[in-house]
Fold this sequence. Notes:
- This protein has helices at 7-17, 19-25, 32-39, 43-49, 53-77, 82-89, 99-114, 118-144, 156-172, 179-194.
- The protein has 199 residues and is mainly alpha-helical.
Amino acid sequence: xxxxxxxxxxxxxxxxxCKELFFTQGIKNLTISQIAKTAGVGKGxxxxxxxxxxxxxxxxxxxxxxxRNILVEKRISQTTxxxxxxxxxxxxxxxxxxxELRGLYKEFISxxxxxxxxxxxxxxxxxxxxxxxxFEKIIEDGIENGxxxxxxxxxxxxxxxxxxxxxxxxxxxxxxxxxxxELENYIDAIFELIEVKQC
Length: 199
């Protein structure tokens, strides 16, 4: 009797078996031969599941993002205060538990800026759009709940990208001493402007 292979699970297993290799070697320095050896499969088998090494990285990142999103969504659902939800949303930029995913994210940004690849830019765009929609919904819910003024809608993208900009500045310079503190101070200051004032 023929063995039935769950291709989705096999793809996931191969990708996850290479996760540590990507973290220690970096995306650019890896070869398909190294990846195949680490995964315990032949190069031909690797190509049955992935087009190239970037495709493997996309799979790893997708798995990690999915797992992270479940955890963060649970944490966000446990608070009713919009400002606290935004702070929880931004923990990606500094939390210890997201360090590996942040490392891959930095590599993606570096590659996207230094040698733009259509597939990588498309992947980055999908990530941006997905997280932005989630962020926008948090702000929209705050407006609908009477917690934020309607003009907050005009600041959503600015708040969203500024947090990422602070993260990139922290990674590329010595100008930010404490990223968590900077992000939280920024969110506190913005919310002073957009929260409905209670009389």
